Amino acid sequence: MLAARGAVRRGRLPAGAGPVRPRSPPRTVDLRSDTVTRPCAGMRRAMARAIVGDDDYGEDPTVNELQRLAAGILGMEEALFVPTATMANLIAVMCHCQRRGGQLLLGRAAHLHVYEHGGAAQVAGVHSQVLPDLPDGTFDLEQLELLIREAHGSRYHPRPELICLENTHSTAGGRVLPLPYLQQVRGLADRYGLQVHMDGARLMNAAVAQGVKPAQITQYCDSVSLCFSKGLGAPAGAVLAGRCGFVAEAWRVRKLLGGGLRQAGVLAAAARVGLQQADETLRRDHDNARRFAEGIRELNSPLCSISLAAVETNIVMMNTGQGWLSPPELCEHLRAVSEEEVAETGQAVSVLVFPWSAHTVRATWHRDVSARDTELAKNKLAFVARKWQEKLDLGLHPTPPGAGGA
Q1: N-terminal to C-terminal alpha carbon distance within the chain
Q2: Strand-pair category, 160-166 with 103-107
Q3: Is the pLDDT of residue 288 over 70?
Q4: 306 — alpha (psi -120 to 50), left (phi > 0) or beta?
Q5: Helix, strand or coil for residue 353?
Q6: What are the pLDDT digits (tens) for 74-101?
């Protein structure tokens, strides 16, 4: 053994010995969210060259240019740059529901309702009335109208003032709200004097998937938010767009919430690049997500399944088989790398996905995930499924490498 080690140090290998390769870190494919993106080279150059000023005084030319560009794309009169889409949504609620105790109508699984710390109640003093979400991200409009009519006919109900939609719908797996549905919501809102706000964090994904201009979607809304730090790949920022009077009031509420920015052009410059590249970037993401979903169907494993009809944009929801691996366990198997994997496949790949619910794992595509990364992720899932099945056939309970057990 010592002689062999000496031979290796001197650059000579004993007969029959394979080449000695240094162990390289595994290739990581991060599919947890489209928020994990890093600014591309073009964004970094734009940030470095950005002309800036005091945005709180309205004097940052790069922010002003972004706001004009975004307003035009969204078909709105004006737009306001804000730090996050969560703040944009809260500002919209506060501007539309200025009567304390007013009512906001939205889906039970809406991001604004579940993942934004109840800002509508905590900060705005607005009551949320939720409706069951249908699998495609919509809700039953007959039920919506019934709630509105009941409230209008009672002195005891909160007064409905705002309907909030989410497009694309995150919990539904990136589903796109149909245009006829949006038109129906608009008509219902007009009949009862309500406003419509769209949480459009991934609105550009919806536009690409439907093959329409974003303004064709937002024409049915009074206001819309758009996030730059998801699929568009910028490091931070969002816009809130609407009519001139609405945006003027939104500026005041942004200031109240501590969202006033100074030399924000360095962020707006990256957002502008993301917005200009949106069509090409998001179309590629959708294609890669679809390719991965088709790979799950072809795998035909009880480990996980997929509804191809539900894969419309950059999000894939994998359903884990009941009684098999739980979502956290499947996530750990995809993350872990073993010597067995390297020996069989010739590569070490760590795939990061998100345990979304009791029986669902979410994978989200973004600009940092290439077609090759997608193939690596497909192959890793196939490897995990194969090894899992082999151990089950032997009567063993599969465990991730390093987790102990059989």
Answers
A1: 31
A2: parallel
A3: yes
A4: beta
A5: coil
A6: 999 999 999 999 999 999 999 999 988 8
Helix axes 61-74, 265-276, angle to 10 degrees: 30
Is it the case that residue 15 has pLDDT exceeding 70? no
Q: How confident is the model at residue 399 (pLDDT cuts 50, 70, 90)?
A: low
Mean pLDDT of 390-399: 72
**Token pair of 355, please?**
């345990």
Q: Concatenated DSSP letters for 17-71? A: PPP--PPPPPEEEE-S-TT-----HHHHHHHHH-----GGGT--HHHHHHHHHHH
Give 101-133 as a 3 state SS string: CCEEEEECCCHHHHCCCCHHHHCCCCEEEEECC
Q: Report the alpha-carbon distance of residue 72 to residue 61 in Å, rounded.
A: 17
Residues 6+ apart with CB under 8 A from 65: 268, 272
Within 8 A by CB and 6+ apart from 354, the residues are 31, 32, 33, 331, 361, 362, 363, 364
Q: Distance of CA 87 to CAs 73, 101, 153, 253, 368, Å?
A: 21, 20, 33, 10, 26
